[in-house]
Amino acid sequence: xxxxxxxxxxxxxxxxxxxxxxxxxxxxxxxxxxxxxxxxxxxxxxxxxxxxxxxxxxxxxxxxxxxxxxxxxxxxxxxxxxxxxxxxxxxxxxxxxxxxxxxxxxxxxxxxxxxxxxxxxxxxxxxxxxxxxxxxxxxxxxxxxxxxxxxxxxxxxxxxxxxxxxxxxxxxxxxxx
Length: 177
Ligand code: GDP
Ligand code: MG
Hints:
Elements: H1 2-5, E1 10-17, H2 24-33, E2 48-55, E3 58-65, H3 78-81, E4 86-92, H4 96-100, H5 102-112, E5 118-124, H6 136-146, E6 149-152, H7 161-176
Parallel strand pairs: 1-3, 1-4, 4-5, 5-6
Antiparallel strand pairs: 2-3
Residues 24-25, 43, 66-67, 69 line the site of magnesium ion (MG).
């Protein structure tokens, strides 16, 4: 259509990765539908959700992919990563083992991507300050060392969720435009 001819249509694939139960599905449901589920249910059927934002007066759509629980078996397939230009690597600030896994997720993302990927390290569940197991400083330092954006979020109380996704989407837009 005329939009495409004018080169003003943007659709970016973004993947969410990280250990099981860090809050990946809830970050996406909070961002795309403003919903939160206390009881984690396996994602059934839906592979991704599309969310639009406006940048420079242009409609930019992000197709955001969520795993269906395969990460539990370390079995996220290459199809999941294919074509991704953005990634959120999520850990749970109350569970150090999930922070220790970040390097492995970064390696996997690198292995499967053949282009520049805008990456955000996300320390989720920042509402759980009383049982914090990873300091803000550690998150920041790792992000700096790996060249990632960094943000602590809470899918539960909505802290920084929109911000985390939108920073990644803006960076992708900057990379391609
Ligand atoms: P996933 O396996 O990474 O997709 O994680 P889920 O989104 O299924 O969440 C796992 C569990 O953590 C669920 O019981 C959620 O309710 C809970 N959860 C997710 N995000 C948050 C958060 O920001 N704060 C708190 N306190 N719990 C969260
Ligand atoms: Mg999930």
